[in-house]
Input
Amino acid sequence: MRRLMILLGALGAAFTLAACGVRGDLERPGPIWGEDERTEEEREHEDDGEDRGENR
Output
């Protein structure tokens, strides 16, 4: 019975970790409330990371 519980725990962990990955390009969402207060330099910095294909 103990081996069955360990196996089920391991399978559950594997499925959980497999579901964590986000595929495709990530984009910063807009603010929940208020205006976007980032400076133009901060916006350009985010765009630079996308051009180089860097993951954060």
In short: The radius of gyration is 20 Å. The helical segments are 2-18, 40-52. Residues 40 and 46 are 10 Å apart (CA to CA).
